[in-house]
Amino acid sequence: MNVIKTKIPEVLIFEPKIFGDERGFFFESFSQKYFNDIIGYPVNFVQDNHSQSSKGVLRGLHYQLPPYAQGKLVRCVVGEVFDVAVDIRRSSPTFGQWVGVNLSAENKKQLWLPEGFAHGFLTLSETAELLYKTTNYYAPQYDRGIIWNDETIKIEWPQLGDFIMSNKDLIQPLLNESDDFL
Ligand SMILES: Cc1cn([C@H]2C[C@H](O)[C@@H](COP(=O)(O)OP(=O)(O)O[C@H]3O[C@@H](C)C(=O)[C@@H](O)[C@H]3O)O2)c(=O)[nH]c1=O
Questions:
Q1: Which of 18, 40, 69, 152 is most exposed by smallest CB count within 10 Å?
Q2: Which protein residue has the closest C-alpha to ligand 1 atom 16?
Q3: How is the subunit organization of this protein annotated in UniProt (predicted)?
Q4: ipTM computed for the complex
Q5: Ligand 1: distance of its center to the CA of 164 in Å?
Q6: Domain limits of the chain?
Q7: Is 51 touching ligand 1 by the criterion CB < 6 Å?
């Protein structure tokens, strides 16, 4: 597993080592020990999520408040998405900054966002399926969002025409109006 740093030190991209042969491929998609060694502290994933989206679907930006904050390890197993992490920790030197990476079934990259980050993605292929592990359970009362096109964050989303979004995501608050994370 190769680890790629991003401009936000806590956000990492994992690039697994793929073993290909005439049958197909094999790779370890997750190793608790390896992951904890890289992150430097024990991370306990408790929930796995799987979503499917059509081209142009944008989900996000989402996070959960403490004590149900979620770290997420995200990968794409069908198609391709542009996946984004936004630092929403008000005490952080990188507060309001974002990292975007293309995750695809082909590149098999995984994005790690610790607690304190909002997450969103845009589907680039006809269909895409995302798998992600979370460090806390879904807690709807603690579920929060930030509007995808917040002018202070300025995410450079790929241009695909009109995005398809949930009613909830069309009216999310600005970062500066959102509930404080920490
Ligand atoms: C997130 C989630 C949703 N649900 C239910 C609630 C709702 O009826 C339905 C769809 O929920 P949403 O519209 O919130 O799904 P979605 O917009 O895909 O939300 C997800 O977006 C990405 C970007 C994330 O990072 C995730 O953590 C999550 O917030 O699924 C669960 O049962 N468990 C869960 O963990």
A1: 40
A2: 59
A3: Homodimer.
A4: 0.98
A5: 15
A6: 2-18+25-177
A7: yes
- Is 2-18+25-177 a domain of CATH 2.60.120.10? yes
Smallest CA separation from ligand 1 atom 28, residue: 62
136 Cα: distance to centroid of ligand 1 (angstroms): 13
Q: Return the closest-CA partner of residue 115 out of 146, 70, 84.
A: 70
Residue 115 phi/psi, 5-degree rounding, is -60, 145
In whole angstroms, how far apart are CA 139 and each of 3, 25, 118, 142, 180? 30, 36, 15, 5, 17
Q: Which atom of ligand 1 is nearest to the CA of 134?
A: 27
> Could you say which DSSP state residue 162 is in?
S
